[in-house]
Each structure stands twice: as C-alpha cells, then as structure tokens.
Amino acid sequence: MNLAKTMFLDPAMRDLYPDWETHADEVAAYLRMATGDMPDDPLLAELIGGLSIKSPDFTRVWGAQRVAECTYSVRRVNHPLVGPLELNEETMRLPDDPGQRIIFLGAAPGTDSVERLRLLDSLSSWPRGEDGCLVRAEAISSGSYGRAATLLIDTPSARKEAPVRTFKLQVQMTVDGYMAGPKGEMDWLSFPWTDDINAYIDALTDSVDCIVLGRRLAEGFIPAWAAGPEGEDQKSIDQMNNTPKVVISNTLTESPWENAVVAGGDLAEIVNGLKARPGGDLIAYGGGTLVSSLIAQGLLDELHLFVNPVAIGAGMPVFGDAGDYRRLRLVAARPFDCGITALHYEPKRG
C-alpha cells in the first residue's frame, strides 16, 4: 500500500525512477491482480478508490486493465546521494503464505552500481545484503495483504515517519446536548449559515481525506450528498462525494455506495488501523451509536461541537452513556453570526 501511494502521489518518485511510467504500470498491474486474489478486502478497495481520486496518472494506468505479477525486472534508480543505479529486482512468494511477497533488489557483480551501493552503505547504518545492496523493509499494504513487504533503496524521504492521522468529530448539537430529536428530528438546526462558519468548517475539513460513518447515518448521508443537496455549493458537494468513506457495520458485507467501503468487527481495531495508515485526517459527522462508542472508547482526538441556540428537552444525546467521566480540555470557542458557537475540545489523556 505504501509503495503504491508513494509511486503515484509523491512527485519525488519521478526523479527517483527515470523509467517511472514502466514502474507505475507494474504497480497498477500488481494491484489489479491483488484485487482478483482478495476482491472483498476493504482497505485494498479504499486504496484504489483514493488513488483514483487523487492521481490522474493512476486513473489512466488503471484504466488499461493490465493484470500481472512481475517476478523479475531491471530497475533503474537515480539515487539522490550516489547517483544512477541499475538493480536486478526479483519477487518471491513465500510457500507457506501465498499472500506474502518479498522483493529483493541487488546489483550485478562488477558493475558501477555495486560500488555506488557500497558508498551508500558507508553513509548509512541500515542493513545491507551480501551483494552490497542496501535495503530496508517497507510494508506495501495492510489488511489481508498486511504482511507483504518490499525492500526499497534507502532515501532521505523514506526515513520520514508518517504522522499518525487525527480523528475528528464534527457534530451539530443543541444547548442541552442532543444531536437529534427523539425521532431523529433535525428541524431545530440554525439556518442559513453565514460566511464565517462556512470558512471555519472549510478550514476544519481541509486536512480530511476519509469520512467514517455508522450504517444508519450512511444510508441517508451518502445518497443525500450524491443527489446534490439544495443550498450547497458544487465545491462542497464534490468534496463530500469524492472523499473516501468507511462505513462501520457488522450487518453489511459489502458497500452499496460508490467510493465507500464497509468495515466490521472491533471498533478500536478498525479506528486504530485507519489512524496508523498514511493519509490525511479522519472525520465522523455524527450517528448516535457510532459517536457514543467512539467517545466511550476514547478513540477521538478532537471534538468539534457546533452548539445551536436551541433546547429541545429530549432526543439523541451526543455523549449518551459514556461510562466513566470523560474529561475534556477546551482548545477554542468560536461564536458565529448565525448564532451557532463552535466548541473545540480534546480529550484529557492519562
């Protein structure tokens, strides 16, 4: 997964690989083969959906519908420290686990690339193979393909640790703590919004590239945005529809919606897995059961509560039965001209 994202989303890869087009085509062909092996892998589907949105080059290469597993090739690399390298690449499946693959890179004996690899070895403390090839292990996918790995040439950018993604909650609520009425009523919301709250929400969601939804909310949320809700500008509609979504459900086995995958099982494992993967921030937009569970299990990093100036007396609470006290730290409070006030909280840890 990391290899595919880096190949298509990191501009530096075009400088690193002089035959980038060939290498990118091989990566896409391997991904298409992987979808045949594991057609129900939600993380693989999310990866492909995300690359299709973010990379026109991936969309073009993916459209060729090439399926292949390259077991041997010659890889040319413009290394930023030691210059051009020509490396033999071999792919091996482990016999006890066909879903696991290891890629080896090494230089042919007697070539300039061997000397350049030895020079690179002297500049680094990372492990080296017997042929002088400096390598490091890099996971290329997760989920069902989580143990697959490739051995990559060491580069400064490869050493950067990917930051952990922030999981945000953005929810509209009443002053007495409800996100919906007793029957799901939302007629208490304050409209129309003013420019200041629109700009605030744009900034809040700018870093988000994955929406997490409960099943019940998804059943209304996704079709409503797909239809283009009245009063929303096209930019907001496109952003909502194009952002990949993960629907938390133990009853659905596959997603009936475009650009959405279903994830079931232990909620903490799902959320921690999403947060550990490379990418932008995650956001949840409500859903009583999901929000209560996220809060109760301490899985949220930021709570953005948009308090409407109305009390309804009863309904679906934001916090519900959170078990123990949930202590929060107020980061910021911002009132808007439309009467709504945004409260930004973070959980107190420890």
Overview of this protein structure:
The protein is an alpha/beta fold and 350 residues long. The chain has two domains: 2-159, 2-Layer Sandwich (Beta-Lactamase), CATH 3.30.450; 167-347, Dihydrofolate Reductase, subunit A (3-Layer(aba) Sandwich), CATH 3.40.430. The chain is 33% helix and 26% strand. The protein is built from eleven helices and 15 strands. Strands 10-9-8-11-6-12-15-14 form an eight-stranded mixed β-sheet. A three-stranded antiparallel β-sheet has the order 1-2-3, with helices on one face. The protein starts with a helix and ends with a strand. Residues 122-161 have low confidence and may be disordered.
Write a concise keyword list for the protein shown above:
single chain, 350 residues, alpha/beta, Beta-Lactamase, Dihydrofolate Reductase, subunit A, 2 domains, 8-stranded mixed sheet, 15 strands, 26% strand
CATH superfamily of the largest domain: Dihydrofolate Reductase, subunit A
The secondary structure category is alpha/beta
At CATH level 2, the architecture of the largest domain is 3-Layer(aba) Sandwich
Rounded to an integer in angstroms, the radius of gyration calculated over CA atoms is: 24 Å
- What profile does the largest beta sheet have? 8 strands, mixed
The amount of helix comes to 25-40%
Distance, first to last CA: 33 Å
Q: H/E series, N to C?
A: HHHHHEEEHEEEEHEHHEEHEHEEEE
Spans of at least 5 consecutive residues whose pLDDT stays below 50 are 122-161
* Nearest-integer average pLDDT: 81
